[in-house]
Amino acid sequence: MAAALAVGVAALATGCGGAAGGTGGSAAGARDGGKAGFPVTVTDCDGRETTFSAAPRKIVTSNASSLEMLLRLGVGDRVVGTGFPPGKGTLPPDLDAQAQRVPVLGKAVIPKEKLLGSGADLYIDTFASMGNMGGAAAAPTDEEFAASGIKHVYLASTACAPRKKAPQRDLSAVEGDIRRLGQVTGTSRRALQLVTEMEKKVSGVRKALADVPASKRPSYFFFDFDAGTKQPVAVCNRQVAHAVLTEAGARNVFADCAGDFKPVSWEDVVDKDPDWIQLGVRNRGSAAANEKAFDEAEQFLKGFAGTAGLRAVKEGKFLRIGSEQTTIAGVGNADTVRRIAETLYPDRLGGAGAAGR
């Protein structure tokens, strides 16, 4: 696998601006004036530095996570290509149309030659191991990126997290990525607005659950239906989803698993006997198609002998919340925290179980 790296800003402002409405933000309105805030120096997980003397003009993103962050920062017009494009309808309507106009350089990992020949001056990589995923050719070397004039940075919440000694228990790493991309693209004010909105939503949940001891919080299994039913894949404690579940007042049944994802057995799941199960389904492009997929995931758990006797299955304690907003770093993680918490604690957050059935 490629060496795990991540973008990190050496000196990062910690103050937050006021909350802003909406999800997108215009390209012009989101940008800070001129070259204010530059130069910006970022470091990777190994401490190597990259300096930006001005905001990049042509950006390629490795997948939908960093693409969505840029769209929300209001610099979608600078994105000249992406890999792992978001499915139609995956993003909020005001962002979806913009996302669908971004050239797709690879439906999975971007081929090395396409990336190096893209004309980009910045490549934002979401996962450190992406260069070897999907049978793709080896990722470009540092020397090849430099020769093509491309600065290469990673999202810390996904690329560095598996290497960290501590689990992700909150959304600080995701918020840090948004702030850092704001600095790199000259949109710090918009970035701080987005982070403030996230913190407001999550802090409301924290306040509502402050007196609920850890031992009394319900156990929770994220069922990645699209990863296959023959062998389940666990969300481990370095994955963004673990932070989402923890902030929502749930106890991830695989919290003792260090890393991001790990194949487990159905026997492991049965042994955990979770109180709640999230039906993690990837967006199918329409509400009807999504409901069909949720139905299929639920029916599998009810019909499979290994899981039919689980407490959550017998009591119908399922949450129908998509995979992307749970496992992929982004502004939407805060909304997922709220949705899960409202379902698990309707008496405290007034959600009336809207996310589940």
Which terms would index this structure?
357 residues; alpha/beta; Rossmann fold; five-stranded parallel beta sheet; four-stranded parallel beta sheet; 15 helices; 37% helix; disordered N terminus
Strand order of the largest sheet: 6-5-4-7-8
Q: What CATH architecture of the largest domain would you give?
A: 3-Layer(aba) Sandwich
Q: Element order, helices and strands?
A: EHEEEHEHEHEHEHHHEEHEEHEHHEHHH
* Rough outline: globular
CATH topology of the largest domain: Rossmann fold
- Counting DSSP E segments of at least 2 residues, the number of strands comes to 14
Mean pLDDT: 87
Largest sheet: 5 strands, parallel
Distance between the ends: 40 Å
Number of helices: 15
Instruction: Kindly report the name of the CATH homologous superfamily of the largest domain.
Output: Nitrogenase molybdenum iron protein domain
**CATH class categorisation of the largest domain:** Alpha Beta
- State which percent range the strand residues make up: 5-15%
The tally of domains stands at 2
Helical content (DSSP H or I, runs of 4+): 25-40%
pLDDT < 50 runs, ≥5 residues: 1-29, 130-136
Report the radius of gyration as a whole number of Å: 20 Å
Structural class: alpha/beta
Structural description of this entry:
- By secondary structure, this protein is α/β, with parallel strands linked by helices.
- It folds into two domains: 8-197, 3-Layer(aba) Sandwich (Rossmann fold), CATH 3.40.50; 212-349, Rossmann fold, CATH 3.40.50.
- The protein is 37% helix and 14% strand.
- It is built from 15 helices and 14 strands.
- The protein has helices spanning 27-30, 64-73, 93-101, 112-116, 142-147, 156-160, 172-185, 188-209, 240-247, 266-272, 287-303, 311-315, 324-327, 332-344, 346-349; strands spanning 8-9, 40-43, 49-52, 59-61, 79-83, 104-106, 122-125, 151-154, 219-224, 233-235, 251-252, 261-263, 276-280, 318-319.
- The strands form four sheets. It has a five-stranded parallel beta sheet. The chain has a four-stranded parallel beta sheet with strand order 11-9-13-14.
- Strand 7, helix 5 (142-147) and strand 8 (151-154) form a beta-alpha-beta unit.
- The longest helix has 22 residues, at 188-209.
